[in-house]
Amino acid sequence: MMAVGESISVSPPGSRNRSFYIPRIKTAATTFLRHGYLSSSSHRRSDVEGHNKVQLACTLPEEVLQHIFISCAQLSVPDWSWVNVSYVCSAWRRVAVNCPDLWRYIDFSHPKWHSITSQRAKTSSLHVISTVTDKNTRLLQRTLQLAHRIQDIHLTSTVQRIHPLLEILAHPNPALESMIVDIHVPSEHSDVDQGYDPPAFPTTGPPLTNLKYMELRNAPFYLLTSRCTSLTHFHLHDLHMTERPTLRYFLFMLEQLGNLQDLTLHRAFPIIVDSGDSKPQVGPISLPRLQTISLIGSVPEITNVLECIILPPSARLLGKIYTLSDFKSTVWKLTNPLSVHSWGAEGGGLPLETLVLTGDQSCGRFVNGLECNPDFRQSLRIRGFRADCGDRGASIDLTIAPEEYDPCDDGLIIALSAIWKALSLTQVHTLALKDLDVVTQKTWTQFLRTLPSLRILDITGKAPSGLVWAMLLNARSHAQGQKRLKKAGGEISEGRRILIPRLNDMYLHNVDCASGGFMVARNAPVNSHCDLDDSRFLDVLLASLVARRSFDVCLRSLSIARCEHVLRRNVDDARAAVKYLVCDFRHVVKDEEVDADCPASYWGGCDVSSIPGLRHYHRLRALVKVDSGLK
């Protein structure tokens, strides 16, 4: 035993000699003990527990903590164990141990945790949720093969690591209710052949009567076997071209799913191998219980699937067109399969009553003046609601969102026109527009002719200049037709009939009322973004309402809420044009604050006077001058 005052020398490997003075260490330890910094293990434990009792996270109700723990167990994070959360404090540990449902989520992050969770699960049905790694592949194999009862499987993996598990997944536990196989392919290898070898094992067997949900992401299609006849939800995502089944085989497998309620095909459509025929010789199949079909693909892919499936009248269609590279030759083919369904013009089902159009732009169209922005992308979403939709959402929900760069609006407008033509819109009483400013006056005229029952028009965000110009020019044309009718007699031609004669109410929300419009390009039915119309949106709208009132087609109410650049004279004109006006006067500005040389605004406040090459017009002022000359 060493005497007081001696020192010891400790020389760890690879380090220099260092002396420790024993009395100094004892003095320091005594000081820590005296001030309570060090204590016995029992005292330390009681102090920690006392500290935890005042922490909010440690005093949450047991039901809340159990919900949090189960949410952690449902995460699939590599090299992380959800069991660690049960060791945060004694309160958490107690709640976790007393929650039987928690231990059904087997932890595959380490053999130790796998053993603990498997033992605590006892004879309960298991949840196998994990990211497949080189360390846990054998654990997963053993569990999937030997577990007496597995309720659901959710595996995330790469293509290489999933191969040892494919045979087991093709012959899952008979008690299985849900299976999700999510295969990740790095973006830099997305174009590389990521196919799977044909199965070297049979896929037949007794029906999996409990299996209701299956989701395959870049996984082999053969995991959908003839045993899965009880599926109610089938989701297929990102299937590589080499793995896609033929249309005939795909429909054969789909027809066996008589209980299917939800079908998803996202970039995972079957291929057509019939050569020489524009349409494959495959008869349509019926899915009588289908409630929702979700499709993301090109126009031909979506068209082919809709032509081959007979949907029940109550089925909802969710779709996204992600490319318009071939729209001129194929987009109008989409009209036929859309029109024959219940929400189509020829379907004969319960008609649509509300139509919502939403536009979106990723960024500005131009940079440095009129130079096209290569990052510019825009999309258009069309939603139609029926009276029986309830909480289910839109009966039809289609998005046109081309991923390739296109500085022109041509493809977007033509695709919208094709979809519009296919839908049954004669009973639509509400039209809502949000950030939709690309449709031209000529196209709006065609659209409005199909809405004879429209009573409510709701506009939010970007001002649809083409819409109000269609209403104004139609009102002027109708007035001229009435004058000629009085002189010569006869009927007004279809082109001169008043559009949306039943329109009663109009709502404007967060609209820049000083927004200008665009003149139509000479050789295409799209906007020319170099030819600007300096007529302000609200001025054109009020001019159309005044013209409509002249032949007793008066708007009942107009609401202007949180809009920008509303002038006092606009408020006075609105009072004279409608019966009831609701206006947010906090945003009304004086007339003299408007710059006479630049009355309209463009592109989110961009100073168009500094951009060369722009040609300015003022169509409304020109019409007023024409009317004055005629008088």
Automatic annotation (TrEMBL):
InterPro entries: F-box-like_dom_sf, F-box_dom. Residues 58-108 form the F-box domain. It comes from the Eukaryota. Signal peptide: none annotated. Pfam families: F-box-like (PF12937). This is F-box domain-containing protein.
